[in-house]
Design a protein that fits this description.
- Two copies of one chain form a homodimer.
- By secondary structure, the first copy, chain A, is of the alpha/beta class.
- The first copy, chain A, has two domains: 6-157, 3-Layer(aba) Sandwich (Rossmann fold), CATH 3.40.50.720; 162-262, 6-phosphogluconate dehydrogenase C-terminal like domain (6-phosphogluconate dehydrogenase C-terminal fold, Orthogonal Bundle).
- Chain A has 13 helices and eight strands.
- In chain A, the strands form two sheets. Chain A has a five-stranded mixed beta sheet with strand order 1-2-3-4-5, with helices on both faces.
- At the A-B interface, α7, α8, α9, α10 and α11 of A face α7, α8, α9, α10 and α11 of B.
Chain lengths: 307, 307
């Protein structure tokens, strides 16, 4: 485990709790000291990378730190990551460490606190863990097994589809919360004194640490721009309709349908995917695109739920 | 009490629980039957309006129903309302019932369910109850006493300031939630499968009944247009900054400050306002503008909290 913040520290704890042999490395002396105090094996980045050719190396460092780190990864290393954006990470791996074996990863877990102290072995229980494999092989199976050991379910997709999806359901919500909080506060003390449920809910994530929100949103620039343009188009259309006819039916109805689609997701049924057969990669990606997920792995047979 | 839906029904129950003599009227046979079954005195609108010249008449009907109703209100009646917009209500009163004594009102309580069955005597406990008096007199005191009997605190302001404030902290949040829900659902099953806290929080109120959200937002058209323009300007600026420099610092920092202003509102100190003195109306409005509120009324002395 390289990087022992909220996510890295939680993976390290959870993997140890699942019975794995683990060791970690971090540039943060504070996180290293805390992890050692809890009995974890913390070594230098070089030692972490070279200790065992059999190890699965997990990168949990901010995007800007990746190029320097990737240059140090030995050829043939089995690598994954837990960064919140996938296209730029795949690009960096292809550029700086083309000889490693890589499957991208992104556990969808909270980010409002940070550092080793904020983590826990159970952070990923019940969460979606996105994987972005470029082929279906034993390395992918190992990465999925790690996620399943941490009691997450696995959502396979491509880097592009992942980045577009999280722009819509994670990065745009943060941006709209910031805009709403600023407009509300612009109404002065009276507006804030009258604020109740809808404003409280709509601005909650604006309370997150600004530098973390920026890193997340700015790191997914291209996909976020598309999501922002979609939102600007819809909000502009609502504005035009309100100003001309006075009506907001199209906007409000579309929002209501979208919310219903979230809260009443269709029933899932169980399927098996044989990962040793040709077409397994396409089958996995297709599963993810349809809102499905891998919930178990027995040899090379994935147990999945699809809708 | 004219109108026995969520708000009107809750006022009727709460006023009775506070020891008042109450009666109600409604155009909804369903609400009338339910209220009668619980032992309430339900009469025709005409009887409700004419039964006692001493009564405080509370209108809890949708905005479009106001003109017809106001034409029936006898001159000299002491009137208030609980509608979510105030400028249009004051205009309607001046136009259709210029001889009544009127103080506008708006209790800031939930609207996601509706009808008599959704109400309760305790709906307004701890809530802000906006009043929009045009003069400080015994009628205003009676309206404030009703709100205080229902355990709300009273926020005095003007119709214009009220409508601008609720556009920012109530109507815009509903509109942005609708836009976000539609953009998220536009990402298909994968996006919805990955949606977690930020999308859930940001879209929650898009689950409210569309016709209620529309009535609320469309009824406050002028003020909502200004709030939407503020939001469009900020979101457009964020888009421009992300596209040109890649940075979102200004947007994210402003949102974080706004959220902080909401959650860490300044400590309040107690003040008294003598409502019998000249300047009382200005003092009340000033209190509301600064985020203050009336929490008690003893004779003509208001106990208030200001920040």
């Amino acid at each position: 485990m390289i990087g022992l913040g909220l996510i890295g520290g939680s993976v390290l704890r959870g993997a140890k709790a699942a019975g794995r042999t683990v060791w970690g490395a971090t540039a943060s002396k504070e996180d290293a000291d805390k992890a050692r105090a809890e009995g974890f094996d913390v070594v230098t980045v070089e030692e972490a990378l070279h200790r065992s050719a059999e190890a699965l190396v997990v990168l949990a460092v901010p995007l800007p730190a990746l190029p320097d780190l990737l240059r140090k990864v030995p050829a043939g290393t089995r690598l994954t990551d837990v960064t919140s954006v996938k296209g730029p990470v795949h690009d960096a791996v292809h550029r700086y460490a083309p000889e490693v074996r890589f499957v991208g990863g992104h556990p969808m877990a909270g980010t409002s606190r940070s550092g080793w102290g904020a983590g826990s072995a159970t952070l990923f229980e019940g969460a979606a863990w996105v994987v972005t494999p470029e082929e279906a092989d034993d390395h992918l199976n190992d990465v999925m097994r790690l996620a399943l050991d941490l009691k997450a379910h696995v959502v396979p997709t491509t880097p592009e589809e992942h980045d577009e999806a999280v722009a819509r359901i994670s990065h745009l919500p943060h941006l709209l919360a910031a805009v709403l909080a600023a407009v509300g506060a612009g109404g002065g003390p009276l507006a804030l004194a009258l604020a109740a449920g809808s404003f409280g809910d709509g601005t909650r994530v604006a309370g997150s640490r600004p530098e973390l929100v920026r890193a997340m949103c700015e790191g997914n620039r291209d996909a976020l721009l598309m999501a922002v343009d979609d939102a600007l188009g819809r909000l502009g259309a609502a504005r035009g309709s309100l100003a001309s006819t006075g009506g907001l039916q199209k906007t409000i109805d579309a929002g209501h349908e979208g919310r219903n689609a979230l809260v009443s997701q269709p029933q899932r049924s169980a399927v098996s995917i044989d990962l040793s057969k040709p077409g397994a990669l396409a089958a996995l990606r297709n599963l993810g695109s349809r809102g499905g997920r891998v919930v178990g792995l027995n040899g090379s047979t994935a147990t999945a739920e699809t809708s």
